[in-house]
Design goal:
single chain; 442 residues; mainly alpha; globular
C-alpha cells in the first residue's frame, strides 16, 4: 500500500463498475495481482484463495504504449538511476548488491502494457471477497493469531477483524504474497518510463530498506508491481509506517510470520484516522419516497437527521449514533443501501475502490460473526464498457449536465450528472449508471 498526502503520490486506480465513488484520491499503490501464489505455510489448513484486489482500469495511452525492450537501453537507464540513487544517500555497495543480476523483465512489461479492463459488477466482486471460504478462513486466522491480534488492537485501537479482513483481501491470509523480485520489478517499470518518477521513488525507498538491513535483496519479493508482504505495502509506505511489533529488530513483512505486517496495517489505519469502536458502515433500509439526492459522500449528517428521513437499520432497532454519516447506494435504489462513517474513508486510504472498501468492511463484519447483506443486488445488470461509459458522459455533457472529463471514470461528478438526468426524466435520482439508463439517455 502507499500513503497519501505529504508522504507521496501514487496512481489513481478507479474500479470501473458503475457504482458510487469516493472523491478522487491517490491510490495507496498500483493494484496489481501477484504473479503467482506462494505456497501456503501457516495457512496450509485453509482453502487456498486467490487475491481479489481490484484490477486497475487501463488508460488508452497505456495500451498503445510500446515499452522499450533492449537490455542495452536498460543498462543506460540503470547507470543514470545509480547516480540519482547515490545522490539520495544510497551506498554504492547497497546498490550493487540490490541490482546484481537484475535485467529488464519483458514479462512484466507485457503485463503492464496489456492489462485488461476491470468491469465486474460490485456484487460479483463481493461474491469472491466475502465468499464462505474467505469468511471461514478469516475466522480461523483470527483464532490462530488471536493473542497477538488482541495486543495489536489494544496498542493501535484498530479492531482485529478489520486487520484480518485487509489481510484476507490482499493476499488470502498470506497464501498469495507474491514471489517476484521487488527490485527487478520496479526497476523494469521505472525503465519503461511512463511512471518513471513514481517507480524510481519507490526504488530508492526499497534501497533504503535494504540498506537498513530489514531484509535481504533477494528476499524482498512481492507482486509484479512492487507491493510487498502479507498486506502488500509499497516501499515508501513501509518506510513511513511499518513497525517491528515482535521486537526482533527488523520490520519483517515478508516471512511466514505475519505479526509485523498485521501490526503495520493497524498502524497505517490508525495513522489515517481510524476511530476505535466506530463501524465502517451498516446496512440500512430507506423508506418509500426517500430523497436520493441526499445519497453520496457530499452529504454527511448525524443519526438524528437520518432517522427523521425514515432511515432505519436493516436488522431493526433504532438508528445508532456513530457520528456523521453518509448514505451509499452502490447499485442504485434496487440494491443494498449503506450508512457509512468516517472509518469507511479510512479504509479507502488503503485502496479507494468502493468495492474494496465495502469488501474489507463486510468481510470484517462476517469474520466477527455478522450475517450477509439482507437486501438483494440487481444481478441482472451488467457493467458498462469503457466505450459506453464515455458515451454516457458525452450524452450528459451534450445536455449541459456534465462538465467533467470524458474519461469513462464514473466518479462523483458523473454520478451527480446522472442524478440530474434521472430527475429530469422522472427516474429515481440514485446516480446509478446502468445499461437501461444509457438506453434512456440515447
Amino acid at each position: 500500500m502507499r500513503p497519501f498526502g505529504p508522504v507521496g503520490f501514487a496512481l489513481v486506480l478507479i474500479l470501473t463498475t458503475p457504482v458510487w465513488a469516493l472523491p478522487p484520491m491517490a491510490s495507496p499503490r498500483p493494484e496489481m495481482r501477484p504473479t503467482q501464489a506462494q505456497a501456503p505455510s501457516q495457512d496450509q489448513s485453509m482453502a487456498v484463495e486467490r487475491s481479489i484486489r481490484p484490477v486497475p482500469r487501463i488508460d488508452p495511452a497505456r495500451a498503445a504504449a510500446t515499452p522499450a525492450d533492449t537490455q542495452g537501453d536498460f543498462t543506460e537507464w540503470r547507470a543514470g538511476f545509480r547516480a540519482r540513487a547515490l545522490a539520495e544517500g544510497i551506498r554504492p555497495e547497497t546498490f550493487e548488491r540490490a541490482f546484481a543480476g537484475v535485467q529488464a523483465n519483458t514479462r512484466i512489461l507485457q503485463r503492464d502494457s496489456n492489462q485488461a479492463e476491470f468491469s465486474r459488477m460490485l456484487w460479483e466482486y463481493l461474491d469472491g471477497a466475502v465468499s464462505d471460504a474467505r469468511v471461514s478462513n478469516g475466522r480461523a486466522a483470527l483464532a490462530r493469531h488471536g493473542d497477538v491480534l488482541a495486543r495489536i488492537e489494544r496498542h493501535y485501537g484498530v479492531e482485529a477483524e478489520v486487520v484480518v479482513a485487509v489481510w484476507g483481501l490482499e493476499t488470502a491470509y498470506g497464501a498469495m504474497r507474491g514471489s517476484t523480485d521487488t527490485i527487478g520489478a520496479m526497476a523494469t517499470l521505472a525503465f519503461e518510463g511512463r511512471r518513471r518518477d513514481f517507480f524510481e521513488a519507490e526504488l530508492i525507498a526499497a534501497l533504503r530498506i535494504l540498506q537498513a538491513g530489514d531484509v535481504g535483496a533477494r528476499q524482498m519479493v512481492g507482486s509484479w508491481a512492487g507491493a510487498m508482504g502479507h498486506t502488500q505495502f509499497m516501499p515508501t509506505s513501509y518506510l513511513a509506517l511499518a513497525v517491528d511489533f515482535d521486537g526482533d529488530g527488523r520490520r519483517d513483512i515478508w516471512s511466514d510470520n505475519p505479526v509485523d505486517a498485521l501490526a503495520s496495517t493497524a498502524n497505517y489505519l490508525r495513522h489515517h484516522g481510524w476511530t476505535t469502536g466506530q463501524p465502517w458502515g451498516l446496512e440500512v433500509v430507506l423508506p418509500p419516497g426517500f430523497d436520493y439526492g441526499l445519497t453520496g459522500s457530499a452529504t454527511k449528517r448525524g443519526a438524528a437527521f437520518w432517522a427523521r428521513q425514515g432511515v432505519r437499520p436493516a436488522d431493526g432497532g433504532p438508528l445508532p449514533d456513530h457520528g456523521q454519516a453518509s448514505i451509499l447506494v452502490p447499485a442504485g435504489h434496487r440494491g443494498v443501501a449503506l450508512m457509512i462513517f468516517d472509518n469507511f474513508r479510512v479504509i479507502a486510504r488503503y485502496n479507494p475502490a468502493t468495492s474494496y472498501v465495502i469488501g474489507v468492511g463486510h468481510l470484517s463484519d462476517r469474520i466477527a460473526g455478522g450475517g450477509p447483506f439482507r437486501a438483494a443486488w440487481p444481478r441482472g445488470d451488467r457493467g458498462l464498457s469503457r466505450a459506453e461509459r464515455e458515451e454516457l458522459q458525452r450524452g450528459l455533457a451534450a445536455r449541459g449536465l456534465h462538465a467533467g472529463a470524458i474519461d469513462g471514470i464514473l466518479g462523483p461528478q458523473t454520478s451527480e450528472a446522472v442524478r440530474r438526468f434521472q430527475a429530469s426524466v422522472g427516474l429515481v435520482p440514485d446516480g446509478y449508471a446502468s445499461p437501461s439508463l444509457l438506453e434512456r439517455l440515447r
